What we know:
The protein is an all-alpha fold. 76% of the residues lie in helices and 0% in strands. It has 2 domains: 7-52, no CATH class; 101-196. The model has no long low-confidence stretch (mean pLDDT 77).
Amino acid sequence: MNCTLPQDRLQDYLDGALTTLEAAAVETHLRECERCRADLASYRQLGARARALPDTLLPERDLWPGVDGGMVPRRTGVSPWLLAAAAIALMALSSAATMLWMRRNIPAPDSLSALQVRYTAATAELVRRVAEEEKRLSPATRAIVQRNLQIIDAAIRESEDALAKDPANRGLELMLRTRYQQRLDLLQQVRRFAEES
Length: 197
């Protein structure tokens, strides 16, 4: 007879993890299948042997002295001052590379006006959608959203004012771009949250 009972089913039966109906089906199968009865007996024997094993095994002697004795500090022959100088040089090179990368990857100031146009359009659309969905939010949640928007809007105004005074400052432009993105992200999160409520 070809047995079609999965072997993990026998283990589940042995562990008591089957429903009453499933267990009855396995018992019916066991009456007819000699191989599964033998496997079940083997699993029971294996479980009994595993339960007889001790919970912990301690070594016959203390092993730490042998480990500790083998841990001898290695001398590299390199002066600690030379290592410190190499670390400082590595930090300086890393900082210089980061500055060069940032200067190349910050968009030029003339693209800021195009970004502001896209930001204004996206914000208007999101504000309209949020206003439609806002009724689903609790008054406390609406108050938190309004407070967060006010904080971000104040930061945007400060960044715009600072950039107007120093239009060549790429750091200020990057901050303004970040504030725009924060406002868009907050509006999108509020819209998603309102739709799920």
